[in-house]
Amino acid sequence: MLFRSAVRREIEERFTIGLDAAARGDWDGARAEFERIIVLRPPEPQGSTAHYDLALAYANLHRNDDAARELRTAVALDPGFLAAMANLVSVDLMRGDLREAHAIADRYLTLAPESARGLYSRGIVAMQTGDYATARDDFGKLLHHNPAYAIAHYDLALAEERLGRYAAAERELRSALALAPTYARARFALGVVLLREGEHAEARSAFARATVDAAGDPALANIAAAMRDSIKN
Questions:
Q1: How many CB atoms lie within 10 A of CB 178?
Q2: Distance between CA 227 and CA 206 in Å, rounded?
Q3: Which residue among 85, 110, 136, 222 is least enclosed by CB atoms within 10 Å?
Q4: Judging by beta carbons within 10 Å of its beta carbon (0-12, 13-18, 19+), is residue 23 exposed, middle or buried?
């Protein structure tokens, strides 16, 4: 009885220390605390939470394979752990494991069909696997409930453009720019779509604006300038 009480107290203390370390950005310190908690085999919900927190520490230490393993364990312990699923999708995208990312995103949306994060995650996976129709549907559903999400308008535009629906892509990019006027990537993408539509003067103007808005992204600014200069007045 005393031993179990001491273990519970150690688990609670290490959670406090680990979360404090994570808040300070001391990810190695957080890792050590959560690894120790897992060795102590805490019951639910502390068990899945410890694996989840350890995964976040690993991800911030760029140990993505270890992070994925811990997130899988967290979901196995708590099958409804949506935050763990969402982070597993993100980690899998960084690892290039698109098959698992897609499966986990599907599972997430089965549990939370209207989740903005779930729809966005599966849309990104679909874009990376070339399933542009699914990406269009997921981003469209997300925007139905969250129309002020500029990034989703941009991603939906990319899906529409890949499907050859240039008018729809232009509409979504203009919506993104109405919400975020200095969104350089959306401005550049608008230039590309306008070129495909034969609107050369407008495309040149879009690329010229993108060079200004992309001041903090030299690579994008340079390619926007090159595109601008390739279009004759």
A1: 12
A2: 10
A3: 110
A4: exposed
Q: Which long-range contacts (CB under 8 A, 24 or more apart) does 72-75 make?
A: 73/48, 74/48, 74/49, 75/48, 75/104
138-191 tens-digit pLDDT? 999 999 988 999 999 999 999 999 999 999 999 999 999 999 999 999 999 999
1 confidence band (pLDDT: 50, 70, 90) = low
CB-CB contact of 44 with 38 (8 Å): no
The model carries a pTM of 0.78
Residues in CB range of 110: below 8 A, 6 or more apart: none
Start-end of H helices in 96-165: 98-111, 116-128, 132-145, 150-162
Kindly give, in sequence order, each residue whose CB lies less than 8 Å from that of residue 18, ignoring residues fewer than 6 positions away: 29, 30, 33, 34, 37, 53, 57
Handedness of CA 62, 71, 22, 41 (dihedral sign): negative
Q: Say if residue 103 is exposed, middle or buried (CB neighbours under 10 Å; 0-12, 13-18, 19+).
A: middle
Say how many C-beta atoms besides its own lie within 10 A of residue 82's C-beta.
Answer: 16
Task: Give the separation between CA 196 and CA 165, rounded to whole angstroms.
Answer: 10
Q: What is the pLDDT of residue 2?
A: 61
Backbone angles phi, psi at 208, to 5 degrees: -60, -45
Tally the residues of the chain: 233
**How far apart are the C-alpha atoms of 123 and 162, rounded to whole Å?**
14
pLDDT tens by residue, 48-61: 999 999 999 999 99
